[in-house]
Amino acid sequence: AQKVTQAQTEISVVEKEDVTLDCVYETRDTTYYLFWYKQPPSGELVFLIRRNSFDEQNEISGRYSWNFQKSTSSFNFTITASQVVDSAVYFCALIKTSGTYKYIFGTGTRLKVLA
Amino acid sequence: DSGVTQTPKHLITATGQRVTLRCSPRSGDLSVYWYQQSLDQGLQFLIQYYNGEERAKGNILERFSAQQFPDLHSELNLSSLELGDSALYFCASSVARQQGSNEQFFGPGTRLTVL
Asked: Which residues of A touch B108 (CB under 8 A)?
């Protein structure tokens, strides 16, 4: 069975602090995709990144970085020098595209960045 | 602005009724996806269409159906509505047929309230 766990329900940090959002997944498949999405208070969903299971390279995009480790089944997301505009709910998701299709979202982590 | 439009923005209806949600994908995108976000169930993938044909099915109830028309817009039909169907319904679009292969662009959502 596939599962995505975001154990941190809510995190509060002060502006300019670094913060890491954890995502742990379970799957027996060798081919899958992992995603992160942002949902700001306005409610829309914003795609942040996707990673396929064969690409363990870490990625950095501005203040955002992602650490994919298959050995620990984790796909963690770090925001460096957080800003108030980073306040949002962040979702991690797993897509299994082989055999029976599955698209599983985590329950989300609410990040509050305080000025 | 993602380029994906959804109408209506808000919908209030009664139990037992039927409603239709509409989505227009970004120009050039052939895939349309529907998601449901509720307090009880969190974020769930419902269904995907690619160029008019059903591509993948998620946790879509039998009371729900969708289609994608030749002009690529899509409609999600929800019937015999129950209180638990109250949720935010997102539509997303992408170029590719396979979900994981590229970025998805989300519409602003339709908030459905069933009274």
From this structure: 43-44
Note whether A47 contacts B103, CB cutoff 8 Å: yes
Q: What does the pLDDT look like over B26-84, one tens digit per residue?
A: 999 999 999 999 988 899 999 999 999 998 898 899 999 999 999 999 999 999 999 99
User: Is B93:B25 a contact under the CB 8 Å cutoff?
Assistant: yes
| Residue A29, SS3 per DSSP | coil
Measured CA distances, B28 to A72, B3, B25, B35 (Å):
38, 11, 8, 21
What pLDDT digit, counting tens, does each position of A64-91 carry? 999 999 999 999 999 999 999 999 999 9
**Residue B92 touches chain A, beta carbons under 8 Å:** yes
Contact residues for A96 (Cβ-Cβ < 8 A; gap 6+): A2, A27, A29, A31, A32, A102, A103, A104
Residues of B in contact with A102 (CB under 8 A): 58
Q: What chain A residue is nearest to B111 in terms of C-alpha separation?
A: A43
At B93 the three-state DSSP class reads strand
* Nearest partner of B2 among B25, B22, B32, judged by Cα: B25
CB atoms within 10 A of CB B95: 15
